[in-house]
Each structure stands twice: as C-alpha cells, then as structure tokens.
Design goal:
- About 0% of the residues lie in helices and about 45% in strands.
- It is built from no helices and twelve strands.
- The radius of gyration is 27 Å and the shape is elongated.
Length: about 160
C-alpha cells in the first residue's frame, strides 16, 4: 500500500475548473524505487484521471548526478567528386562518446542493394570510405544515380551519388 505523499503540487490547468495534483506515490509498484503520480479532475463534468509513473520522483525536476553519455551520431558529408566516373569518396564523421556501428550500402533507384561496405565499428572522428562503382558481385555498375544509405541504431541518412562513364 502506498504511503502518504511526502510532497504534492496543486494547481489549476489553464485557469479552468480543472485542478491537477502531482505528487510522490511511494513505491507503488514494488520495484524499490519511489514512483510519482499526477492527476486531474474536472469538477463540472465529474470526471478525471490518475496516472502513476514508475521511477524517481525527481525525474525531470532535478539535475542528474551522473549524466549518461549521449549516444554517438554520424554525419555523411557531401561525397566527392559527385558526379564521379571512377570512384567516389564518402566522408563519414562520428561524433559523441565511444564507437558506433554504422552500416553503409549503395542502392540502385529501385532500392536494391548494389554494394554493401564491410560492417565495422567506427571511433569518433572522420573516416573516408571509397566506392569504385563495382557491385558486391564484382560487376561494374551502369551509368546512373545511386544512393548511399547509412544507418545506425539511432539514425538513418541517404545521399545521392551520380556515376557518369
């Protein structure tokens, strides 16, 4: 059974007859962490809601003592030369903490994978990848527009590449 809240914040929502209450719910779900709740009740309509949220009551209200590192992110800078006729350089920049797994593929206009770069983890910094217009089956691809697709756990990026022979 939850204990009596140690603190409660009361107020009106948008100046209407719709009071709200935010407070500590104690260890409502038995996970060992203090939970918190917020509720709102519309007196004129005789209806309301109570929502209990699992976790620390300071969530969003206080600074974190040990901040979590931000996930790494990547940027595909403009490929050069583009258009190209023999090979294209793909600058991949990794920012944030730690290494990041980024998968890169070259797609044709139908979305089919023509070439897939070797999968590996990248450390923070700029890395240069090169594609010479050859497919994974070692065939020279035709003149046309292709798309570099790069994706990680947190983001996806697509950039056109123009091969001219």
């Amino acid at each position: 059974m939850p204990r009596t809240p140690a603190w409660v914040l009361d107020g009106e929502l948008d100046g209407m007859n719709y009071p709200y209450r935010i407070g500590e719910a104690g260890d409502f779900n038995g996970d060992g962490m203090d939970d918190w709740f917020f509720s709102a009740y519309h007196g004129l309509e005789a209806r309301g809601r109570i929502i209990v949220v699992s976790g620390d009551r300071n969530f969003g209200l206080a600074a974190v003592e040990h901040p979590m590192p931000l996930p790494s992110s990547f940027t595909i800078h403009p490929c050069y030369p583009n258009p190209f006729n023999s090979s294209v350089t793909i600058p991949l920049e990794i920012t944030g903490g730690g290494t990041q797994q980024v998968t890169q593929s070259i797609l044709n206009p139908l979305g089919q994978v023509v070439y897939r770069f070797d999968q590996k983890s990248f450390t923070p910094g700029t890395h240069l990848l090169r594609w010479n217009g050859v497919s994974n089956s070692a065939m020279q691809v035709a003149t046309g527009t292709y798309f570099l697709q790069a994706h990680s756990q947190y983001q996806n990026s697509v950039q056109p590449l123009h091969l001219i022979k």
